[in-house]
Structures are given as C-alpha cells and as structure tokens.
Amino acid sequence: MTALVKHLEHTTDSRWHWAVLEQAVGLTLFNKDENAKVHEIFKEVIQLWTLLLGDAHFVTLEAIGAAGENLQVLAERDERYMQEAEELLLSASNGLETISGPQALKTMTAKVALADLYIHSNEFTKAKNILKPILGQSEDTSESQEELVRVIVDAKYAMAQTYLLEGNRRATEALVLEIVPILERAFTRGHRETQKAIYRLAFIYTGSGELDKAKNLLEEVVRTVRHPHGKTDPAFCRVIQKLAAVYGMLGRFEEALGILEELLSRMREDLVQDDLLRLSVIEEIALSLNSMNKYDEEIGFREQALAMR
C-alpha cells in the first residue's frame, strides 16, 4: 500500500490512484479497525489529486466522498471525527451535485452518508431534509439499476431509522414495508439484500410487540439465507439469536434452546474464533435454561461464560 501511495507522486495515471483507493476501501470492508489507517491513505490521495486535477474535479470529489463515508464509520465510535466527516461529505455532495446533478448516484450516495451522520448526532431535521428528495427519486433511470436501488434503499433505511429514534414505529414499519418489494423487483425474494430488509422488518415488529409477525419473518430468513460463509456467519448468527429471543418472548423456550444449542454446536464444528459471538450464544442458552427451571444445566453454561470473560 505504501509503495502505491509513493508511486502516485510520480504519475498522473488515474489507474494508480484507483488502485490505492480500492485497496483502502478493501481494508475498511474486511477490518473495521483499519478505518483510521484508511483515512490517512485517503488524505494523501485527496491531497495529490487536488494538486494534479483541482479540488472541483469529479475524481477528487469522488475520493472526498469515499473518505467522508469511511470517516463516518469512525465518527459513530468517536465523536472527534464528526466535524471532519461532515465537512468532507458536505464538500463531496455539494461538488458532485454541481457537476452531475442532484439525482446522480455519487451525489445521492454522499448525501445518504451525510444524513446517516446527522442521524447519529440526533440532528433529525437535517437528515430528513437531505433524504426527502432522494426518496422521491424514481427507480426508472439510465443509471445502473442495481446501484440506484441500493442508494434508494439506503435512503429509506436512514429515514426509517430517523422515525424509529423519534418513536414513530408505524412510520418506520411503513418505510421498511416499501423496501421489501423494491428489492424483490431488483433481485429476488431470497436474495441476501431482500432478506436483510425482512430481518429489519422483523426487528421493528419485535419492538412493537407483534411477535407472531416477527417470528414468521425470522423463520423465513432462517429457511432462505444461503450465506457463502455458512451458517456460522455472524450476520446469520444474529438472525438465529433474534429468533430465539422471539421464541422466548412467546414462551416457546424449548424451541429457543434447540436452535441456540444447534448454533453453538455448528460454531464449535467450524472452529469459529469470534469469542464475543460465542459468549453471547452461551449466555442466551443459560437464560433459556433458567426460564425452563433447568438450573443445574444453567450453571454449567454460566461457568463457561465466566471462563470466557
């Protein structure tokens, strides 16, 4: 990576710039702890592109937007990054809108990231003002259909999150219900993106106490998901844990215990190294056993959890 960055100082070939950017984004995707390092790389690339192309060039603005999105992840964990993330995303979204228009994919992507940042800082009015024009965007466009769908869906999720944080569960549910058919049309009912939307809808139903609706949707996800990393993928494990929690709330403790024990067995077979994930499953098994008055078995799992801490 360092060699690539240094090479940029001696070339104007944009392919080298994209090579650095792609590797930086790759670091972010596969290791969230690398965001700070990635940000330093982005800053070097942006500085060089600004010198070579100018700060209003599309390529420079695109890099600024990518840097802002990366920094937004950091800002969610550390508020010291909030102001810089806002400045980068504002610069990117305004600049890209001037060049490409408000309905361009890159413009909308930067705006959704900015809205997410405002939601995190509880500035809901700002977030809504950014998101409303995007939500009015038609899916019929010359842009890449798949990419456009993802941007519109991200905007709907962001608005739904705003409603949820404001305590408006019905408005949240209505938006997520819109997302599922959009994804079904773009992909399929069984596609991972559609199943993620169904899971989020189940999460909302759980919060509003509509447990039978939540259970049915979660059971669908469990039946449907075929993840490349298998049934011990962390995202799939969270679905199982959520379904077990719903079973518990419905008083179906045997079913909750059954799917949790099956999950823990698969995790041991696959040698899953995520200790926090395994710990959370073990603790939920202990809770299920407690609810069933199986205290001796519960103690065994409590001891396992204690040994892992």
Short overview:
The protein is mainly α.
List the SSEs and their pairings.
Elements: H1 2-8, H2 14-30, H3 35-53, H4 58-77, H5 82-100, H6 105-120, H7 124-135, H8 145-165, H9 169-186, H10 192-207, H11 211-224, H12 234-249, H13 253-269, H14 275-291, H15 295-308
Helix pairs in contact: 1-2, 2-3, 3-4, 4-5, 4-6, 5-6, 6-7, 6-8, 7-8, 8-9, 9-10, 10-11, 11-12, 12-13, 12-14, 13-14, 14-15
Keywords:
309 residues; globular; Serine Threonine Protein Phosphatase 5, Tetratricopeptide repeat; mainly alpha; 0% strand; disordered N terminus
Mind explaining what this structure looks like?
With 309 residues, this protein is mostly helical. Among the domains are: 1-120, Alpha Horseshoe (Serine Threonine Protein Phosphatase 5, Tetratricopeptide repeat), CATH 1.25.40.10; 251-309, no CATH class. Helices cover 79% and strands 0% of the residues. The chain contains 15 helices and no strands. It has helices at residues 2-8, 14-30, 35-53, 58-77, 82-100, 105-120, 124-135, 145-165, 169-186, 192-207, 211-224, 234-249, 253-269, 275-291, 295-308. Helix 3 (35-53) packs antiparallel against helix 4 (58-77) and helix 10 (192-207) packs antiparallel against helix 11 (211-224). The longest helix has 21 residues, at 145-165. The model is unreliable at 1-20 and 22-32 (pLDDT under 50).
Helix content range of the residues, please? over 70%
Chain-averaged pLDDT = 81
The CATH architecture classification of the domain at 1-120 is Alpha Horseshoe
| Shape estimate | globular
The helix/strand class is: mainly alpha
Give the count of helical stretches. Answer: 15
